Amino acid sequence: MKALLKLLDTITCKIQEYIMIITCVAVTVLIMVAAAMRYIFHYDFYGSEEIILFTAFWLYFTGSISSSRDDTHITANMVSMFTSNQKVIRAVEIVKSVICILIAALATKWSFDYISWTFATGGRSPVFKMPTIIAQFPIFLSYIFWLIYLIRDAILLFCKKDGEEGRE
Fold this sequence. Notes:
By secondary structure, the chain is an all-alpha fold. It has helices spanning 2-39, 48-70, 79-82, 86-121, 133-159.
């Protein structure tokens, strides 16, 4: 089972890396082309902002998934500044973990409701009439992965013995 989970993790990481590379290059090229067309060729690349926005959503929220997986989000953990008592630090980590899981579950539900509503109403973008669910789906996807990774980290936290550092 552990080997299967590791394989799934490796595959999803590769997919995320490719999405981030492709969308990063696409956003950069689209912005450069739009700027060149506007300021050099004096021609408006009509709807470029819409394409950039849809692509940027995938870039941003896939990056969010990646940072959730690697636990590299910016944090403001000041507990260790006020105490060196490992039991207090661990208790605060557990409380933080439970609160984060609850918030992530709620956000996941809200994002699911949002894309369900968009799908039901058939929302479309103003210029190219693309389904807006294309830009909204990565939001839902990132919350699902955020919740999964928070649960994983909570399990590892509960399994961690006193004095152990980090996660495996």
